[in-house]
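re: ur msg from earlier - yeah i can do the magnesium ion complex, just paste it... oh wait u already did. ok heres what im feeding in:
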Amino acid sequence: MRANRQNIQDHTIVGLDIGTATVTFVVCTQHDEGIEVIGIGESPTEGMQRGMVSNIEALVESIESAKAKASSMCMREIDRVMVGITGSHIRGTNSTGVVAIRGNEVTIDDIDRVTEAAQAVPISSGEKLLHILSQQYIVDGQTGIRHPLGMCGVRLEANAHVVTGSVSSIENLFKCVRSCNLQVDNVIINHIASGQAVLSEDEKALGVALLDIGHGTTDFAVYSEGSIVHSATFTTAGSMITQDIAVHLHTSQQEANRIKQTYGGAYTSSVDYSESFELTVIGEQRARQASRKYLVEVIEARLTEIFRLVKEELEQSGKIDLIRSGLVLTGGTSKLIDIEKLATTILGIPVRLGTTNYTGEMCELVGDPSFATGLGLCEYGSLIEEMETDLIGQRNIKNLPGNTASRAVSFIRKLFMREDHDLLQPHA
Ligand SMILES: Nc1ncnc2c1ncn2[C@@H]1O[C@H](COP(=O)(O)OP(=O)(O)OP(=O)(O)O)[C@@H](O)[C@H]1O
Ligand SMILES: [Mg+2]
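and the outut:
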């Protein structure tokens, strides 16, 4: 995706996707025409399980290795990153806040207060607020307002999707990032980042579901009228498919992963009985022939479980009627042949594959669904800066008394993370 913006100074934005299978850095420059990818760095991940840190030392090494590759490709020092986060600890809840408008028109201060009111969801002591994603504002009963600033009225309501995560899981991730001499610019849930990279604005407006099936996690988000209205994370993903193949075909995890990526598929009905492939079986010297139909049956069984989880989540959330544009699949596991056929059969809605929207330099490489999160993090970083620039540039804000420009920036940042988030402050 390339924004058509003016007045944005050239500078670098780095997305860091610490996936369960791969650590990915995407380095972009931001300029008038949008973002341009200038470097990427990938390294196999050690020390992550189902999207959460399981070995700090091993993960630091993986991040260092990917950072060195990205840095050498773009010939720049990398010292700040936008970090993606996922895992079963991430929780999204819809919430509403209401305040009285203090003057006769809505000011930044009113929006700030209504945002604070909307974040009042039950949060346990082990959880932290990550995002307050505004859905709509309501001024004196008028619904569907995206930009309430300056509107006349007496009562302001905000509907928001509030996202929280486990303090210890976030701290462990940040500890690893900081150990690599990287400052965390912002933290964004992978659901938002991937959605930014693969969904169109039209799809988000009409209503769409996004499913990022990775190695250790499957991130699910529902968008309606341009905003996230539901999010969930499942821990059934590609690693379980690999494990199933290893068990059913008596082979190593490494060989199972190879045959999954080379001969795998998602839809048994599309595979002919005559198709076969070679594999190495544990304890045997010579390679064996195996039926591709059987391999695909094993894969289809686990994918069916994932799509049934999605169906259940959609039914329970009551959001199924909102997804008029259907489901978009992304993440490395979405590369399984015919996966969209299986998803459509189970969910009964249109399904498409989500490669990234990016059309600039290196688009063939970063168009791959595995880059959805990393690229989306950069796009989100760019978007946040655009919004800050827009907000500061609005005359009605400039004319307000006090240090309004910095308040505006602080407000925008609050929507995506907590600027006062103690976890974002570097350790002394
Ligand atoms: N061509 C392919 N066919 C099938 N599966 C594939 C293919 N390419 C990659 N995968 C699988 O995709 C998974 C990796 O996807 P991805 O890079 O999105 O995960 P990740 O971001 O590292 O992990 P997560 O987001 O779950 O923490 C692995 O299980 C890998 O085996
Ligand atoms: Mg991922």
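cool cool. Confidence is low (pLDDT under 50) at residues 1-9, 395-406, 417-428. ping me if u need the other ligands too
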